[in-house]
Amino acid sequence: MELQAFGSPRKLQAQHTSHFEQPLSTALLAEAIGSHRCECEAFSIVGTGYSPILNLCRSLLAAGVDPDAALIVYRKGILSLRIRSIREGAKVAVEDAESGTPRFRVARRQGVAEPRRRGKMGGR
Q1: Fewer CB near the terminus (10 Å): N or C of the chain?
Q2: Mean pLDDT, rounded, for 6-26
Q3: How far apart are the first and last CA of the chain?
Q4: Is residue 91 part of a domain?
Q5: What is the DSSP letter of 101?
Q6: Strand order across the beta sheet in which 70-75 lies
Q7: Structure-derived torsion over alpha carbons of residues 39, 43, 49, 53, reported in degrees to the nearest 10
Q8: Tell me: the pLDDT tens digits for 17-61?
Q9: Which secondary structure element, helix H or strand E, spans residue 45, and what is its range?
């Protein structure tokens, strides 16, 4: 996943991009509110929780939004984050490592249990 910051807020015009990036004209706008809420007003969808922007990506996909659309997130009118595609954002989650440091990881699918590891005791 590629996260980018831009210098000019609210500028949504197509620009020259490499073949790995999408033009900004195919982007969705969202507003980060506080540390646990992100809203996409165009679809009236809200992402909440520990990683609200990534949760918003998953909610947008579930609502049938174009998975290749970029997501541009503002906080208090200032551009803070750009996710290349909501499909990529939906595949990522944030989890605390054993040291307490937040880390990106592949998101687990809802309703799917993690495989159990067999320990020294009781395992085969």
Answers
A1: C
A2: 47
A3: 38
A4: yes
A5: -
A6: 3-4, 78-83, 70-75, 27-33, 37-40, 45-48
A7: -70
A8: 444 454 545 789 999 999 999 999 999 999 999 899 999 999 999
A9: strand 45-48
* Burial tier of 91 (Cβ tally within 10 Å: 0-12, 13-18, 19+): middle
Question: Does residue 15 fall inside a structural domain?
Answer: no
**Token duo for residue 15:** 């620009």
Residue numbers of the domain that contains 101: 27-106
Q: Are 90 and 54 in contact (CB under 8 A)?
A: yes
CB-CB contact of 55 with 49 (8 Å)? yes
Classify residue 72: in a domain, yes or no: yes
The structure's pTM equals: 0.67
Phi, psi of 64 (to 5 degrees): 90, 15
